[in-house]
Amino acid sequence: MDPVVSIITPAYNAGKYITKTINSVLAQSFEEWELLIIDDYSSDNTAEVVLTLLEKDNRIKYVRMPMNGGPVKARNHGISISIGRFIAFLDSDDSWFPNKLEVQVKFMLEHNIALSYTSYYADNGITRILRKVPQRLSYNQLLKKCHIGCLTAMYDADQIGKPAMPDFPKRHDWAYWLGMLSGGGYAYGILEPLATYTLRQTSLSANKIDLVKHNWRVFKMYEGNGIKAHYKFAIFMFVNVWYTVSEKIGLRLNALFRKSA
């Protein structure tokens, strides 16, 4: 039987933490999946770790890229070789709750949804905070704030096809969802948190100042370079600064409450 869900996991020097990620997939109550580990030419023991786990379950598939090309190329290669109806994404240091696929596939099939996402936790190793999502998002709403965590996103390739992600070094996932919604329609959210995102200071998204130019690149792609685009971008920046500050305050308060408990 062909897998219903193809899970794309780019991995680069992920040997220290990818076991937890893979185990969270192996623990899924929904069993009709394939896990495509796309090794972006790692120089550590990523291959050894993955191949050991692959021996235990043939639903795990390992592909090594011929050279290091970054997460976009790795994800796009995974998308191109996937055979499932639904495409999902899980980075090599993140994890899913055991019912993630079961809940999300059922939700999409029952409501004929093309693109869905869920709430999730952001964890910095000391404490974690819940990132709640809206029940649905239009293109214009998503343009103000990317509420879709890549580790929670799932789309129906029967409805959307298998387009490649834009080849941006950062924010390519946000640009990807915007492209799916640019012709109209909505993405739909599951309010229940079903995944955990690992916050790392060395991650691509850690440098918020550097992200500004990459955010603007996405805006230019879809909104052009006119006054209207600059106005929308100003709104986007205000909203995202607010969310970022609020989350940092929340993480610090959670850490303080843990210490005092």
- Provide the succession of SSEs: EHEHEHEEHEEEHEHHEHH
Radius of gyration: 18 Å
Q: Give the termini separation.
A: 50 Å
- Per DSSP E runs of 2 or more residues, the count of β-strands stands at 10
Please identify the structural class as seen in this structure: alpha/beta
Which superfamily, in CATH terms, is the homologous superfamily? Spore Coat Polysaccharide Biosynthesis Protein SpsA, Chain A
Major beta-sheet overview: 10 strands, mixed
What is the level 1 CATH name? Alpha Beta
How many domains would you count in the coordinates?
Answer: 1
- In percent, how much strand structure appears in the residues? 15-25%
Number of helices: 9
Average pLDDT: 91
Short structural description:
Keywords: Transferase. This protein is of the alpha/beta class and 261 residues long.
Main features:
hexosyltransferase activity, 10-stranded mixed sheet, 21% strand, Nucleotide-diphossugar_trans, alpha/beta, Glycosyl transferase, Glyco_trans_2-like, transferase, Spore Coat Polysaccharide Biosynthesis Protein SpsA, Chain A, 261 residues, 9 helices
